[in-house]
Design goal:
The complex is a heterodimer of chains A (325) and B (324). Chain A is of the alpha/beta class. Chain A is built from 11 helices and 11 strands. The chains are: A alpha/beta (325), B mainly alpha (324).
């Protein structure tokens, strides 16, 4: 096991709204080693994106990190002031956002938006910054990057814009990239190209990656480890093959079972009954119990972290030990 | 670009033409200037002479036709009262109004945008809320009353600022301007402030609303995630996005300030176009009224054109026409 780039311990991010406290992220722990890819999986509203924003200190009021440590290369990010965080953002830790249409500023040219990122952290000339921007565009497969630098975001397609956003994240060859559904809107060919590029970066530069997604098939091909989130908590972690082949938590089980290609042709698609609970004033106990086929009275208490197998964590009283059909 | 300009110019000509018809009929409806211009003791023959001299004995369409022919040659008629070309009268008064209105616009931008940014970035701070509260007064107090209060406090009680006239002027490009001399500037402070007050409030509230609307957007968060400085996020990323509505409103306000500076000019006895048009309406000096309104329409057309051109600079998504 190589050194840890990121080690999150007991992180909670709560939103203090008028209606009550929304525990978007509730006491989660995970770590990513240098050059490794962690897939953070869960349904919409499970707190994946808030986790990502918490890591770079961009949770806006009324939300705030209430407890926990975020150890990035040994430094606790929750203790840093805004100035120190800004030095890391975009530089050592980069984030790729979910919506490609909205992440680039519509009224600024691509070169402006890229060069400012380079020059915010490195003391280089404008010309050098421009060259680096052009190279980064080429790296994510944008044809004729020199000309495209002077374009505006609206002159790019959605997929191209996403690639620009990815190129911006790669500018400083960061130690950690948090990618929030980065390939969701892309063609499969482009997706494969970007995944390959990202894997190469992880291998060669040692970048650690947190890949936030709901798409298990991407995770299966890309990630080394997986963390499954449900209602603000991480319910299961482990090496990706292990978890996908032998899920222990009933929720992970259901999630894998819902992948259409795993269902037999002609039969009804399987789904997890019920809906994700509202994170507002979530009751104590396992959040999944109302949808869980295995729930019983014990589930009304918070399941503690358990370590059923070496390298895996689990939060469940009744792990499912049989194989997925 | 050129075809767009050409189309706009043709449109402008039609707007001007339509305006002349409306104005011409309008001034004929509101009253007969002869009753005001000649003395009540004048006899029938004298009266007929005056009517003929002003060309009022001709049918309306002929008067209009004569006016149009003159307008094409840059002659908008002679003032009944001053017996001088209407255009010349207006041109004499225009610099005074222009410098007053432009100073007011400058003030509203220079004061309104920074205050609006502050109130938008710190909406719940005491200063932010105070700014918003005071801004309500800014556009709800009637400007004549504010003008009178300004005179009472700063001219009458404190004696700091002069309250009437343009003061000392200096010549630039063959025109007399107040803003070039210290004395002229002192004369301009109160009327310009008075005129600017409503607009400062407007620009301020617009800026604040823009900031509130743009801050939660993803592009702001992404810019912050890139690690660029907060001032760059606000002044480059956010400000450029909110300039579009501000430019629109400021553009329209310039026209409005010039056209409707009447109240302020009357309160501060500022010898501008506003006073001229009020005096002209009182004595039904038709050529001056028509010429003045034509100038104002022209002004609005030019300002709208400039605003449209500015859009293309500010928002790359706006194109004046398709490339092909």
């Amino acid at each position: 096991m190589s050194e840890l780039t990121l080690d999150v311990q007991g992180l909670s991010t709560h939103f203090f709204t008028r209606a009550g406290v929304v525990k978007a992220v509730d006491d989660i722990s995970f770590s990513v080693a240098r050059g490794r890819v962690l897939g953070l999986v869960g349904e919409s509203g499970s707190g994946k994106s808030v986790t990502g924003f918490s890591l770079i200190g961009l949770v806006d009021p009324p939300g705030r990190i209430t407890t926990g440590k975020i150890l990035f290369q040994g430094r606790d990010l929750t203790k840093l002031d805004e100035r120190e965080l800004r030095d890391l953002r975009g530089n050592r830790i980069a984030m790729i956002f979910q919506d490609p249409m909205m992440t680039l500023n519509p009224v600024l040219r691509i070169d402006t938006q890229m060069i400012e990122t380079v020059m915010a952290h490195d003391n280089v000339s404008r010309e050098v910054a421009r060259q680096r921007s052009r190279d980064a565009l080429g790296m994510v497969g944008i044809p004729s990057p020199e000309e495209r630098l002077t374009s505006y975001p609206h002159q790019f397609s959605g997929g191209m814009r996403k690639r620009v956003a990815i190129a911006i994240a790669l500018l400083h060859r960061p130690d950690l990239i948090i990618a929030d559904e980065p390939t969701t809107a892309l063609d499969v060919t482009i997706q494969a190209q970007i995944l390959a590029e990202v894997q190469r970066l992880a291998r060669e530069v040692g970048t650690a990656l947190i890949w936030i997604t709901h798409d298990l098939s991407v995770i299966a091909g890309l990630a080394d480890d997986i963390a499954v989130m449900y209602a603000g908590r991480i319910v299961e972690t482990g090496a990706v093959e292990e978890v996908l082949d032998r899920p222990l938590h009933p929720y992970t089980h259901g999630l894998i079972g819902s992948v259409p290609s795993r269902n037999a042709r002609g039969s009804r698609l399987r789904q997890i009954p019920g809906m994700t609970p509202s994170l507002l004033n979530l009751p104590v106990g396992c959040a999944f119990r109302s949808r869980c086929p295995r729930a019983d009275a014990a589930c009304a208490a918070d399941p503690p972290d358990s370590f059923p197998v070496e390298g895996r964590t689990l939060r469940c009283f009744h792990p499912q030990l049989e194989m997925v059909a | 670009m050129t075809t767009w300009m050409l189309r706009r110019l043709i449109q402008a000509v039609f707007v001007m033409l339509a305006m002349t018809v409306i104005v011409f009929i309008g001034v004929n409806v509101i009253g007969d200037p002869i009753e005001i211009l000649i003395s009540p003791e004048a006899d029938q023959a004298e009266r007929a002479r005056a009517v003929a001299a002003l060309g009022l004995d001709k049918p309306l369409w002929e008067q209009y036709w004569k006016f149009l022919l003159g307008a094409l040659q840059g002659d908008l008629g002679r003032s009944f009262v001053f017996n001088e070309p209407a255009l010349k009268l207006i041109a004499q008064r225009m610099p005074a109004t222009l410098e007053l209105a432009l100073t007011a616009v400058l003030m509203s931008v220079v004061i309104g945008i920074p205050l609006g940014l502050y109130a938008g970035l710190k909406p719940s701070s005491l200063a932010g809320r105070t700014i918003m509260g005071v801004s309500i007064l800014g556009f709800s107090l009637p400007s004549f009353w504010v003008g009178l209060m300004l005179i009472m406090v700063f001219a009458v009680q404190l004696g700091w600022l002069p309250s009437t006239g343009r003061g000392q002027t200096a010549e630039l490009f063959g025109v007399q301007w107040s803003f070039l001399t210290a004395n002229g500037l002192a004369h301009m402070v109160m009327p310009a402030t008075n005129l600017a007050l409503g607009n400062i409030a407007l620009v301020l509230r617009l800026t604040r609303a823009g900031v509130r609307e743009n801050l939660p957007m993803d592009y702001v968060k992404f810019a912050r995630a890139k690690g660029i400085s907060p001032s760059r996020v606000v002044f480059v990323h956010v400000l450029k996005n909110i300039m579009i509505p501000i430019v629109t409103v400021v553009g329209l306000e310039i026209g409005g300030l010039i056209a409707f500076a009447v109240v302020t000019e009357s309160v501060f006895a500022w010898p501008g176009m506003g006073k001229l048009i009020i005096d002209s309406i009182n004595v039904l000096d038709r050529p001056v009224i028509v010429a003045y309104l034509m100038m104002i329409v022209l002004l609005f057309i030019v300002i709208n054109l400039i605003v449209d051109l500015l859009y293309t600079v500010l928002d790359p998504r706006v194109r004046l026409e398709n490339k092909e």
